[in-house]
Design brief:
The protein is of the alpha/beta class and 336 residues long. Helices cover 30% and strands 24% of the residues. The protein is built from 9 helices and 14 strands. Helix 3 links the parallel strand 7 and strand 8. The longest helix is centred in the middle third of the chain and has 16 residues. It is globular and about 60 Å long.
Length: 336
């Protein structure tokens, strides 16, 4: 089997470290591994598959002899180094939002539009975490009947804001228990014992940039240019795994039985829906694994062509690291 020189840009962050875990779990054929991060982390050591690797400073001139670069860094970092990474001969699979809506860049969820990876011109974009989880959950429905519209509410874990999110949650929980002062730096308000109905900056129409990703990215991934989505994104005091309520409006009226059967056999999904046993997706069930759990499937009471469901998925893994590694595996012929 051919082996590949793999790099990770942003290797010391939560997503970068998870990429390493997924590469190992999926036995990705690595010849040489190079781990890049900022100057603050350069020289530090990370262990991978029984071997110790030294962090390389991400700077111009550092990206030679790489076949696949997995991006787990911020937009500015991805933008700064993209051209150099691509011109060196690597395919840049980027988790930032910098290139997602670029018409020249495929935006890929392998279970949905995997063949789009082969249209790349050096860069392939990883979608937003909530978009990935939602679309994997409803892809089977779209195969039964084209989805025309989605009403969505996301309940996003604190780790979606980066490694400092759960740290702030824990500190605030401890402060509450000990009657100490609450401080908020990562989030706009106290997140312990609270929910915050804002993720991302507000646009002129009152929606946030995060909320518009579901429509804009969904259209591109599902090849549904007229898809309409109304979304509300909420930060909740959970450490890991996003939860999403979805109301899907299809062209045709579908039976609940055919929807459940289609979801049950859909790739990347676990049907987790037994009300008698109180079985439904929750963050505590879906964290630290790669499947999107789907449950609470029921008919919409307002639109006869509507199906309502609830899904959960680990946003660090399937919503970021795993999806990127799956794209890489698809690219080299190891993912169906």
């Amino acid at each position: 089997m051919k082996k590949y020189n793999v790099g990770i840009l942003g290797a010391t962050g939560a997503v970068g470290r998870e990429m390493l875990n997924v590469l190992k779990e999926r036995n990705f054929p690595i010849n040489e591994l190079k781990l890049f991060a900022s100057s603050r982390s350069a020289g530090k050591k990370i262990e991978f598959d029984g071997k110790e690797y030294t962090i390389i400073e991400a700077k111009h001139g550092a990206f030679s002899n790489i076949d696949i670069m997995l991006g787990a860094a911020s937009n500015p970092v991805a933008i700064e180094f993209k051209d150099e990474i691509v011109s060196s001969g690597a395919v840049f699979i980027d988790n930032s939002s910098a290139f997602r809506m670029d018409e020249e860049v495929p935006l890929v969820v392998p279970e949905i539009n995997g063949d789009d990876v082969f249209k790349h011109k050096g860069v392939i974009a990883n979608p937003n975490c909530s978009t990935i989880i939602s679309l994997v959950a409803i892809n089977a429905i779209n195969k039964l009947s084209k989805i025309k519209a989605i009403y969505a509410s996301t309940y996003q874990a604190t780790s979606g804001a980066g490694a400092e999110g759960p740290v702030e949650l824990r500190k605030q929980e401890e402060a509450l228990l000990n009657n100490k002062e609450i401080t908020s730096k990562v989030f706009q308000y106290q997140i312990a014992e609270n929910v915050i109905p804002q993720i991302g900056s507000f646009l002129s129409d009152g929606y946030t940039k995060e909320e518009m990703k579901m429509q804009n990215e969904g259209r591109k991934i599902m090849h549904l240019p007229e898809l309409l989505v109304t979304c509300t994104c909420v930060r909740v005091p959970v450490v890991r795994s996003h939860s999403i309520s979805l109301n899907v409006i299809t062209e045709d009226k579908l039976s609940l039985d055919e929807v459940r059967k289609a979801i049950e056999v859909s790739k990347g999904v676990k049907l987790y829906d037994d009300l008698d046993k109180l079985l439904y997706p929750m963050p505590i069930v879906t964290s630290s694994q790669d499947l999107v759990y789907v449950g609470r499937i029921r008919r919409d009471l307002i639109n006869e062509n509507g199906i309502t469901l609830w899904c959960c998925g680990d946003q660090v893994r399937k919503g970021a690291a795993t999806n990127a590694v799956q794209i890489a595996m698809k690219l080299i012929g190891l993912e169906e």
